[in-house]
Amino acid sequence: SKTTHPQVGQxxxxxxxxxxxxxxxxxxxxxxxxxxxxxxxxxxxSRTTFEGNQKTSARFEARKDNQFYRLVVKSFKSxxxxxxxxxxxxxxVLYFSPGQPAFFPVITTAAPxxxxxxxxxxxxxxxxxxxxxxxxxxxxxxxCDIFIxxxxxxxxxxxxxxLTVTIMLCQxxxxxxxxxxx
Length: 182
Prior knowledge:
Elements: E1 12-17, E2 25-30, E3 36-42, E4 48-50, E5 60-65, E6 68-73, E7 82-90, E8 93-96, E9 100-102, E10 109-110, E11 122-123, H1 142-178
Antiparallel strand pairs: 1-6, 2-3, 2-7, 3-4, 5-6, 7-8, 7-9, 10-11
């Protein structure tokens, strides 16, 4: 998406398109310092849960229209600046949208010069919108694999122990039955 430069107090609407088999979308904001802030979860049934487990928010509106999940900043302020992401969980995989930057316009100032009056240089701020990684090309996170394989391995080990104990008990019971006096 293109960089958005809202004005102070302006209404800002962002949208996210998902696949058909979604279970809802989270909206988060990454501020200039790189801190992530949870804004809202919108379920596939259009139910919203804002920060603090609230159903409504004084600063934001959220809704679902078919496959589009929309986030509205009611009155844009400096604390709302940042990169906005929607993310969804599908089959135990998190999918992040590309960041949707929303920053006030960058103000350029003329630098003092001692050269001829016809030459001017300007100073611009560094782009506060870092590029996000494409989820298709990023490598699998080993940390996430541990959360899947460790419980699965533990459950298999527990089942193997239960099976071994059951077999041993059945053999003991069988021996007792066969001890018949004739």
